[in-house]
Amino acid sequence: MARKKDPISQTRGILYGLAKLLGDANAVRKGTVGKRVARRTAGKATGRIFGKLFK
Predict the structure, then answer these.
(1) 40: left (phi > 0), else alpha (psi -120 to 50), else beta?
(2) Nearest to 19 by CA among 1, 44, 36
(3) Mind listing the pLDDT tens digit for each residue in 8-42?
(4) Residue 5: CB partners within 8 Å, gap ≥ 6?
(5) Would you tell me which of 10, 12, 15, 36 could form a disulfide with 27, CB atoms 3.0–4.6 Å apart?
């Protein structure tokens, strides 16, 4: 059975998702989409490596 998220966690998730979308829109407006994609990819890879290291 899945655990129910509390309202604060749900709100935080929505806000972080909204911030990500706003950052994407800003990158499109500025013309720096490639740089943003590269940084996001690098961040995800770093997170995975640290996740495996400190398991």
Answers:
(1) alpha
(2) 36
(3) 999 999 999 999 999 999 999 999 999 999 999 99
(4) 13
(5) 36
pTM: 0.67
Q: Among candidates 11, 10, 9, 35, which has minimal Cα distance to 23? A: 35
If 0-12 CB within 10 Å is exposed, 13-18 middle and 19+ buried, where does residue 27 land?
middle
Give the separation between CA 42 and CA 27, rounded to whole angstroms: 17
* Residue 5 DSSP class: P
| DSSP label at residue 3 | P
* Distance, CA of 50 to CA of 45 (rounded, Å): 9
